[in-house]
Give the backbone structure.
Amino acid sequence: MGLWEARVVPHIVDRTCGLPQLEPLRAKACDGLRGQVVEIGFGSGSNIGLYPPEVTEIIAVEPSDVAWQLSAARRSRSPVPVSRVGLDGAHLPLADASVDTALVTFSLCTIPDVAGALGELRRVLRPGGTIGFAEHGLSPDAGVARWQHRLDGLQQRLFGGCHLTRDIPKLLADQGLQVELLQQDYLPGPAASKPWGYVSVGRASA
């Protein structure tokens, strides 16, 4: 990992993924969380303050030490305990069927082994457990999708492996996860922002 990806990208992600207009999407992803929650791609803690009162603990998986440091102030204000238990979503140091619910927001785009990470979430969830998600990804509009494929390589190089072309509902379904709730739309903004702004928000069950 180079200096840009290790030191600069976490600050960029903190600013862009922490924008106020994304908070309602994060809140929808958090709806239904309860008990002990594993959050993959914890980042700088932008979801803190949005967890429902039924949540008792957050088990954070975050590969970036810089992002974890950026989350310190938010963690200090968290109404529930937050602990960092791993660096890699595809290899969770948790027992089978050991957590109640899971959360992933604006992170499936960057996880190298995204199928492995979703498979791990399915493994560690207790029966009846659900995954809340809010992610940007592949647009169903052919013109926008063409631009996403054209820009995908550059996007990955500049933004820590972030993909524009991942089909979020399909990724979930491919790992045997049942999408129960799904809302998809573009974020507000000019037409030129559409390759980055097609968002899927919802809940899936194991």
